[in-house]
Amino acid sequence: MYLHFLGGAREVGRSAVLVEGSKNLLLDCGVKLGENEEYPLLDRSIIKRINRVVVSHAHLDHSGYLPALYAFGYNGKITTTKPTRDLIQLLLADYLRLKQDFSPYSQEDVIKCLKHTDILEYDRGTEIVLREAGHILGSALTEVEMDGKKIIYTGDINTRPSRLIEAARTDLSGDVLIMESTYGGKSDKHIPAKEAGRMLIDSITQTFNEGGKVLIPTFAIGRGQEILFTLESYLRSGGLEKTPIFLDGMINKALRIYRHNAIYLKDEIKRRILTSEDDPFKSKYYLVPRTKNKEEVFETERAIILTTSGMLNGGPVLGYLEKMAGDRKNKIVLVGYQVEGTRGRKLLEGEKSVQIDDHEIEVKMKVDLAPFTAHSDHSELVKFVRSTDGLKKVILVHGEGRKPFELAEELELVSEKRRHQFEVIVPELGEEIRI
What we know:
- The protein is of the alpha/beta class.
- It contains 14 helices and 21 strands.
- It folds into 2 domains: 2-187 and 374-434, Ribonuclease Z/Hydroxyacylglutathione hydrolase-like (Metallo-beta-lactamase, Chain A, 4-Layer Sandwich), CATH 3.60.15.10; 193-369, 3-Layer(aba) Sandwich (Rossmann fold).
C-alpha cells in the first residue's frame, strides 16, 4: 500500500491524500485559497484510478476541488456525513458565484458531485468508519481498513468541546495516523474558549462605551456559529449590553443548516431548540440587513456586525469596512487565524490602509484580536497521539513552516518511550510513502 500526498503537505490548503491499495481512496480534495489559488496535484491518469472519495468536513481547503474530479471524468461516489453534504452544497455554490468565469469547474459538475454523495453516519460502516472530529458541524476522523492495515486520517480536529459540538474521539487504534499540524508549533497554546469569549465581550463593551460599532469578520461555517452563540449567551445573561447583531453573508444560511442538523449538536443545544421560546437559533437579537446599502445598520446607536469573510479576502465585510474604517470610534475584531498576505493579517500587523478593488482605504478604526480556534494545539495533538494504540507511522500534514517539524520532534520523544515505537514523517508535496 502507498500514500500519495497530492496536497496539504507542508502547507495549509488543498488537502488531498490518495490511499493506493486493493482499492484507491482519495481523502479530501480541497483548494488552497489566496491571491494565487492552488489545487491538488491531480491529473486524469490519477483521477481514473480513484474508486471512492471520503471528505472529512465542508471547509473549502478540504472540499473545494471535489466538483473538478467530475469535470475530469470521475464518476464514483463521495462519502461523508449528512451535515458535511449540506454545508458543502452551500459553500460550493458560493465559491462558484465568486469565481465566476475563473472556476476550475461548472455548475453541472457541482450538481453531479452532490448527486454522487453518499451519507455515512458516525460510528457506522466496516471498511470506512467516520468518527466525531470536533472541528465543525459534521466534521469527521476517517478510519480506513484495507489490505490488513488500518489508517486513521484526522482531517481537522479539536479535542476540546465547543459551545455547539462535542470534542473529537480519542480512544482510537490503527497502524498509520495521518494528522493535521496547523497549531503544531511548540509555542502554540490555545487559551480556553471562555477566556476568548470574555476578551471578545470586553472589547465590544469598550467600543460601545466610546460610541462606536463593532465589525466581526468570520468564517460562515463553524467560527460564525461559535461567535454568534457566545454573543447570544452574554446578551441573555446580561453580560453584554442589549444590542442588535446584524448577520450578513452566508452566516444566516449556514445557521439554518446547523439548526436543520440539530441532532448532531450538543444535548444542551437540542434541549433549547425544543423549548421554542429559548431557541438559540432564533434569538430576538439577530437581524439581517434588509436594504442593499445597509442603512438600518448605520442608523442604530450601536451595533455588532457579524459577516464574511473571516480574513477579509472577499464578501460583504469589505463593504462594511469601507464605511466604518474612517471612524476612530469603530472597531474590527478578528476572531481567528489570518493567513499571510490577507487583508486581515495586514491589519493585525499594523498596516493603516487596505486595498479594496482599485482604491486604497485608510483604516482609522481600532483593530483587535479575540483568539477563538477550532483546532487542537501542540500539547493536545501530542496527547491525541499518546492515546492512539498500535501506531507504526505518524504522518504530519496541514501545517506551515516549522510547525509540523516541531510537532514531529516532540512525537519522536513520545515514540522512544513506547515499547512499540513508531516512525514520524513530514511528507513533501507529491511524495509517495509505502506503508
